[in-house]
Amino acid sequence: MTTNPTPNARPKVALITGVTGQDGSYLAELLLDKGYVVHGIKRRSSQFNTQRVDHIYQDPHIENARFKLHYGDLSDTSNLIRIVQETQPDEIYNLGAQSHVAVSFDSPEYTADVDGMGTLRLLEAIRILGLEKKTRFYQASTSELYGLVQEIPQKESTPFYPRSPYAVAKLYAYWIVVNYREAYGMYACNGILFNHESPRRGETFVTRKITRGLANIAQGLEDCLYMGNLDSLRDWGHAKDYVRMQWMMLQQEQPEDFVIATGVQYSVRQFIDMSARELGITLRFEGKGVDERAVVQSVEGEHAPALKPGQVVVKVDPRYFRPTEVETLLGDPAKAKAALGWVPQIALQEMVTEMVVADLEEARRHALLKNHGYAVAVSSEH
Ligand code: NDP
Ligand code: GDR
């Protein structure tokens, strides 16, 4: 539904960094629905990397195309200035990032450059082009800022204690946004978002690794899923609910920072259990620490033809432990509810079902190909 107030008014223009990612794709859909012209920055890659937005792609030759992609990178200052100049956005959503916490320990400098300095580069682009009073800025801040938590649940006033190069880079980004708001009167704000997932979640984040891995095992494409810390506790929401809030944050009178969370917490182990049940598999967890594993207790229905009771389908592998772990995160979204009327609409169980159904469909396709003699590579190495 298009909600542009007056049909003849100039449509609002948004620029999204990270448009090819999970959130960027849902946000682009939302803004197109609202009548925006949406510009997105995509990275040059040796293979197509626009799968998440292919369904909303518009041929640039079409007159009045409302979805346009530009090559760019958050590490490239002149490129960012040029894109902001060309697009003259009313709103910038800075979602682009090296967003994997574990990978940030392998690539700390790159993560700092893109996630920290990249934010500064965009804010400076706005300032250099004299757009401080026109362009509103949303920064994808994160619950990882709380790291070693100082208070439960975490709210806007909870002190930060980042525990990874990713979180430290995002801490810089958080404060530079606050500073530019105070120093230059810019409408710039931080959404401190807790983990949010969907069938579009990257395959190496824990929820998607679980739903995809178990679906592959159920269809006989893999034998075992190797996991890190099963005790880790997270507050998981659905990405669709969270991008709605990103837009709402830029429509207020005054820029403010908000915590976005569900207020409910589960362990990685519980997420595994819920996903297995969706596939008709009942699991029993045995052992402790690095020796912990999940064994199939019973199988019902037709989703897991490849499985037998007694089979070990999940094992802990310390290679997925992090040098410093964030053990527990639980958000308090009271401010967002009171000030903006935002409440999440999709519960965890519903999201698990949606993710498992999508991954099972893909696993079935792969199994069909495999059974007809085609080679299928199903890597779960993360
Ligand atoms: P994804 O990893 O799915 O998407 C990240 C996006 O950033 C991709 O489009 C990616 O491009 C792009 N990107 C990566 N590096 C660069 C770069 N150097 N220059 C330009 N773009 C780049 O993340 P999500 O959609 O899950 O998250 C969106 C944002 O929200 C991120 O900033 C993340 O850190 C933050 N966040 C996410 C949370 C979550 O639970 N999902 C919670 C809190 C914050 P490509 O597709 O080519 O890789
Ligand atoms: P997180 O998400 O680090 O919270 O960052 P991730 O899904 O990677 O990990 C969540 C928790 O699960 C534990 N875990 C594993 N994680 C992965 N990836 N793979 C495993 O095998 C595994 N086993 C256990 C992790 O140790 C961790 O405790 C996400 C990203 O989207 C960030 O960009 C975002 O800022 C935060 O969420 C909020």
TrEMBL record:
It catalyses: GDP-alpha-D-mannose = GDP-4-dehydro-alpha-D-rhamnose + H2O. Residues 15-355 form the NAD(P)-binding domain. Its cofactor is NADP(+). Keywords: Lyase, NADP. The keyword Lyase applies. GO terms for molecular function: GDP-mannose 4,6-dehydratase activity; NADP+ binding. Its EC number is 4.2.1.47. It comes from the Bacteria. Coiled coil: none annotated. GO terms for biological process: 'de novo' GDP-L-fucose biosynthetic process. InterPro entries: GDP_Man_deHydtase (IPR006368), NAD(P)-bd_dom (IPR016040), NAD(P)-bd_dom_sf (IPR036291). It is an enzyme of class 4 (lyase). Pfam families: GDP_Man_Dehyd (PF16363). Belongs to the NAD(P)-dependent epimerase/dehydratase family. GDP-mannose 4,6-dehydratase subfamily. Catalyzes the conversion of GDP-D-mannose to GDP-4-dehydro-6-deoxy-D-mannose. This is GDP-mannose 4,6-dehydratase. It comes from Hydrogenophaga intermedia. The lineage of its organism: Bacteria, Pseudomonadati, Pseudomonadota, Betaproteobacteria, Burkholderiales.
